[in-house]
Amino acid sequence: MKKCIMVLTLAGVFLAAQIQPVALAQDQTEIKSKAETAKEKAEAKAEKAKEKAEAKAKATKEKAEAKAEKTKEKAEAKAGKTKEKAEAKVKETKEKGEAKATKTAKESKEKITKEKENATDKLKSATKSGEKTEAKAESEAKETKESGKTTLNEKMKTATEAKEMAKESKDEAVGKTADGKTVFEGAKNGHYYLNDKGDKTYVKDFVGAKIVGQTKKGQNIYEGPRGGHFYYTESGNKEYVKKDK
User: Fold this and answer.
1) CB–CB of 237/225 below 8 Å?
2) Other C-beta atoms lying within 10 Å of the C-beta of residue 1
3) Which residues are 221's β-sheet partners?
4) Is 38 helix (H, G, I), strand (E, B) or coil?
5) Are the C-beta atoms of 203 and 214 separated by less than 8 Å?
6) pLDDT digits (tens, 9 = 90+) for 77-93
7) Which whole number is the average pLDDT over 136-142?
8) In angstroms, rounded to a whole number, what is the distance separating the alpha carbons of residues 55 and 38?
9) What's the predicted TM-score (pTM) here?
10) From CA 170, how far away is CA 183, in angstroms rounded?
């Protein structure tokens, strides 16, 4: 019995030893197959991912190019509008400037014309006024000449009468006024000259008056033609003083 069991055990061991390499070989083949399958799947997945990435990159590039083109078109359109607007503004400014220049030139021309008309009117008025003024001046000159003759004749007559009155007067001539009129000493020792009307005009100082001193109040003391010393009071009267004063 023991021998049978031992034989069976050895047979089992032997059989196991024979079966194990075969199983191992099968496992390796299966592992290799799985590895290749996994590799193929990985490569396929990588290829798919690459294609997807390339497609995405292409789409992104196309989108970016489209956006850039659109932006360019907008910029060009905006630039075109800006240019048109600028040209329109320049044109408008030019038209306004020309209109203003035309208006200014017109106003200036009208002003010059008006000034010429005013100058012409003033010249005409001045001519008429000059004619009137000249006639008036001639008339006034004539009147002045006649009036001058009359005044001169009257003055000459008055002077003649004054001289005649002076001749008739018994008063003594003691000097002259600053304008050359003869100064006389009257009966009451007052000094006077005859004006153009022949009236007596009394004076205190005159050319030829002899001043011999002053009073305590600073009034001039004169010496008369007869040797008397006197000064004039505030009222114009003579006040005689002693010679030794």
Assistant:
1) no
2) 5
3) 213
4) helix
5) no
6) 888 888 888 888 888 88
7) 70
8) 25
9) 0.27
10) 13
